[in-house]
Amino acid sequence: MPFSDLEIFAAILAAAAHDLGHDGKSSRYHTTTESPLALLYNDSSVLEMMHCSIFFAVLRSQGSNILNDLEHADRQAFRQQAIRMILDTDLAKHFDQVKKFRESHVDVEVYSPEERTVEQRTDVLSFMLKLSDIGGSAKPFALHAQWATRINAELLGLNGTTVDKAIIQAGS
User: Fold this and answer.
1) In which residues is Zn(2+) 1 bound (predicted)?
2) Which residue of 87, 109, 116, 130 has the smallest Cβ count within 10 Å?
3) With respect to CATH, is domain 5-134 assigned 1.10.1300.10?
4) Helix axes of 118-134 and 72-87: crossing angle, nearest 10 degrees
């Protein structure tokens, strides 16, 4: 089956929420410094876990609960898909995810959209979000250079501590 309205809705909101509350530091920074976030999320996809947590806290708050009228099963499906899509933006897992996607969707016999499982459809939507998240390098060079400069300035804008310098040298 092609993407359902709920799957598309989950993808759109996951895209909007995938960097909620971002503090300008990397997950690696948080785990290296043993920040409260790293401790809270057990060093696992620290920022992405935080983005999900904030996202669903907002969705549950009074006046913002746009999922309230959905059936329980649909809310659960939405939640699973949105969490998966947001967690898949963790660049630490990028190459494994690309390999898995290639094996599952590229290097296989072509199947029609009607034959896709929920998992396969979520894979595709998740990968689309990932590509959007990291797609800045596909922009015209002048625009890409502008954004790369901003990101580097953000990274180098850390406190200048020994830990910060070690993270920068390690390629955060």
Assistant:
1) 18-19, 133
2) 109
3) yes
4) 40
